[in-house]
Amino acid sequence: MESLINKNILLGVTGGIAAYKSAEIVRGLKKAGSSVRVVMTQSAQEFITPLTLQALSGNPVSTDLLDAEAEAAMGHIELARWADAILIAPATANTIARLSSGRADDLLSSITLAFDGPIGLAPAMNQAMWKDERTQSNIKNLENKDFSLYGPGSGEQACGDIGLGRMLEPSEIVELFASLFKAGSLSNKSVLITAGPTQEPIDPVRYVTNRSSGKMGYALAEAAVEAGAQVTLVSGPVNIKPPASCNFISVETAQEMYDAVMHHVSGKDVYIGTAAVADYSPTKVEGSKIKKDGSNESLVLEMKENQDILKTVSDKEDRPYVVGFAAETEDLLKNARKKLEKKKLDLIIANDVSDKSIGFDSEENEVTLITNSEEVLLDRSSKKKIAKRIVEFISNN
Ligand code: CTP
After folding, report:
1. What is the rounded distance in angstroms from the CA atom of residue 292 to the CA atom of residue 326?
2. Is the pLDDT of residue 139 over 90?
3. Cα of 339 to ligand 1 centre, how many Å?
4. What single-letter DSSP state applies at residue 60?
5. Structural domain includes residue 277
6. pTM of the predicted model over 0.85
7. Ligand 1 centroid to residue 351 C-alpha, Å
8. What confidence category does residue 144 fall into, taking pLDDT thresholds of 50, 70 and 90?
9. What atom of ligand 1 comes closest to residue 279's alpha carbon?
C-alpha cells in the first residue's frame, strides 16, 4: 500500500453501528503512511467518541460547520483543500442521499461539495434500506459522479437481518481505497526544483529582489512528491511551507542557489528551474549601511551578471531532463522558444506575467509547454492543477 505514503486523507465518519470500526480504518491509513484528519457527523458521535479518533489520528477531530473556533483553525474549505482524497466509512443511507443531492448542511457534506478530488464510500446500512430503489438510484448517481464504492458486504447484520448492507472490514476498505492512487508516474525518479526569488544584498540592511512568490515551484514540488518522485527543493525566501517529504534547501542569493544546485544536481533525472534568479547582483556589498551624506543626489549601483544556473545544468555532460520557465511580458511564445534553443532545454514553460491574474503572486496560472516538437497550452487553472499537468507531461517525455 505504498500509494498511501504521504497522502492527506480526510476520513468522514457517519452515524451507523459500524462507526466503531472507523478506529481501525484510522490505524490502517496511518500505518500505510498517510496523514489522517477525521470529520464526524452529529450522529456518528453517538457511536464512537471524537476523543478516540483524535488520539488515533493524532489530529483534532472536526464535528461542526458553525464552530467558530474550529473554523478559525481549519475551516471546511481549508479541509477540502488539505485533503488528497476523502473516505467516508461508514456511509449511511442518509449520508448517501444527502451527498447525492448535493446538500451542504453539515461539515462533512460541505467539505465533500467543496472538494474536487477522489472520494471513496463504504456503505453500511440495513439490507432493506440498501435494496430500496431510492438508495440504489442515489448510489448510481454518485458512481456517475466518480465516487468509488467499497462494498457493502453481505452477511448477518447488527439488527439480525441477513443480506447486503454490512460495511466491509477496515483492512479491505483501506486496501481498496489505496488503489485510488495509482503507482506514481515519477516513482523511482529524482527531481531537483528551484523556486522563489533570490535576494542580492547591497549592504547589511538592503537587497535587490523580485516579485516571485514561489507558489508555482512549490506546487510543482508537491505534484512531483505526489507522483512518487524523490524531490530536492532549493528555494529562495518565500512564505510557503515546503512539502513535508522533500529534501528542502533554503538559500538567499543567486550564488547560494547556484552552489546548492551544483551540489545536488548530479544523478538527478529531472531539473526544473522555476526560480526567478536575479540576473545581476551588486558588484560590492557594503560592510555597513549606506548613509545619505548629502553629497549624493543620486546613487549608482554597479551590478555584475550572475551565472545562469539553468544553462549550466543543461551544459553538463550527464544532464538531467531540463525544464526552464520563461516569464515574459511581451512576445511570449517567440521569446520562450528563443530561450528553449539558447539554453538547450528539453522543455520550456511560457508564462505571461503581464497578466496580473496569472502572474507572480496569483493563485492561478495559464502556461504553454514548448519543446522542440510540441506546443501545448494548459488552460487557466489553479497552480496546483497546472503543476499536476506539467508533472504528467514530464513523466510522458
Ligand atoms: N535562470 C537561471 N539562472 C539565472 C537566470 C535565470 O537558472 N541566473 C533560469 C530561471 O530559473 C528560468 C529561466 O532561466 O527557468 C528563464 O529565466 P529568465 O530570467 O526569464 O530568462 P533570461 O535568460 O534571464 O532572459 P531575460 O531576463 O532577458 O528575459
Report:
1. 38
2. yes
3. 8
4. P
5. yes
6. no
7. 12
8. confident
9. 8
Which amino acid appears at position 157 of this protein?
Q
First to last CA, the chain: 27
How far apart CA 150 and CA 161 sit, in angstroms, is 21
Tell me if the bond preceding 90 is cis, omega within 30° of 0: yes
Catalytic-residue membership of 246: no
Q: How many domains does the chain have?
A: 2
Q: Which atom of ligand 1 is nearest to the CA of 324?
A: 15
- Does residue 83 sit in the same domain as residue 197? no
Mean pLDDT of 42-68: 92
| Stronger pLDDT, 362 or 133, i.e. the higher one | 133
Same domain, 174 and 221: no
**pLDDT tens-digit series, residues 14-48:** 999 999 999 999 999 999 999 999 999 999 999 99
Same domain membership, residue 125 and residue 247: no
Lowest mean pLDDT among 48-62, 94-108, 195-209, 281-295: 281-295
C-alpha cell read off for 61 = 477531530
Structural domain ending residue among the three candidates 139, 156, 178: 178
If asked whether residues 316 and 207 sit together in one domain, one would say yes
Q: Which is nearest to 76 in space by CA: 65, 60, 84, 86?
A: 65
Whether 376 is covered by a domain: the verdict is: yes
Residues 49 and 93 in one domain: yes
Residue-range definition of the domain harbouring residue 24 = 2-178
Residue 330: give its domain's CATH number.
Answer: 3.40.50.10300
For the Cβ of 337 lying below 6 angstroms from any atom of ligand 1, the answer is no
Kindly tell me the burial class for residue 329, based on how many C-beta atoms sit within 10 Å of its own C-beta (0-12, 13-18, 19 or more): exposed
